[in-house]
Amino acid sequence: MILLLHNIRSCHNVGSILRTADGFGVPTAIFSGYTPRYNDINLLPHLREKLNHQIEKTALGAEHYLDLQTSESILQTLDDLHSQGYLILGLENNLSDPRKIELTPTNLSRFSSALHSRSKSPEKLALLLGEEVAGIDKSLYSKIDYFLEIPMKGKKESFNVSIATGICLFCLSNL
Questions:
Q1: Which residues have C-beta within 8 Å of that of residue 12, sequence separation ≥ 6?
Q2: In angstroms, what CA-CA distances link 170 with 55, 71, 111, 135, 166?
Q3: How far apart are CA 101 and CA 108, in angstroms?
Q4: Is 71 left (phi over 0), alpha (psi -120 to 50) or beta?
Q5: Residue 88 three-state SS
Q6: CA gap 141, 139 in Å, rounded
Q7: Residue 111 has what pLDDT?
Q8: Which segments of the chain have a pLDDT < 70?
Q9: Sign of dihedral through CA atoms 50, 52, 8, 44?
Q10: How many other CB atoms sit within 10 Å of the CB of residue 50?
Q11: Whether the model pTM is above 0.85
Q12: Helix, strand, coil proportions of the chain in percent (round to 5)?
């Protein structure tokens, strides 16, 4: 499993996602777009220190256990992952797309069967996370094999991206 954090705005969300990823044994996180990066060598030292501190507040050390990478072109990265046999999953809500799967036990069972019937190994999954408010950039939709959606029962339309990531990783770990 690989996590792709594209255009995540909040350092606190980034840190929380890294901590959750470590908890589920996800070895790699790839940052792209304007997602704040831990130890970003392209930043001036004082800015890097400030961002690191903010990420560390919620990552609580997990930033040291994951392989953190940067993608200069998310489209190229998605193509590269496809060519390596990865199935690209997009975590998105309120989407009407035939590739959408709600994260419910019944749908996860159907999804698991679909994974095992494909030629791609189900062990190679890449989960794409998008911007906190706008979600995944629509220009990336064609690169996504399946969209995963968490059904909402309350009045709100979505979870915080770090919470949604935890729910999604929990569901995927039980396939």
A1: 54, 55, 57, 58, 162
A2: 22, 25, 15, 20, 6
A3: 8
A4: beta
A5: strand
A6: 6
A7: 77
A8: 118-122
A9: positive
A10: 14
A11: yes
A12: 40, 20, 40
CA proximity to 27, closest of 124, 159, 147:
124
| Residue 66 identity (one-letter amino acid) | L
CA distances from 74 to 21, 33, 34, 77, 80 (A): 20, 8, 11, 5, 10
| Angstrom distance (rounded) from CA 4 to CA 171 | 17
Give the three-state DSSP class for 90: strand
Taking a C-beta distance cutoff of 8 angstroms, is the pair 127, 171 a contact?
no
Mutual angle of helices 161-173 and 11-23, in 10-degree steps = 10
Record the tokens describing residue 122, joined without a space.
């189900």
Query: Total structural domains in the chain?
Result: 1
Residue-wise DSSP of 100-134: EEE-SHHHHHHHHHHHHHSSS-TT-EEEEE-BTTT
CATH of the domain at 100: 3.40.1280.10
Q: What residue numbers bound the domain in which 14 lies?
A: 2-173
For 150-166, how does the pLDDT look when each residue is reduced to its tens digit (9 = 90+)? 888 899 888 999 999 99
Instruction: Identify residue 69 by its one-letter amino acid code.
Output: Q
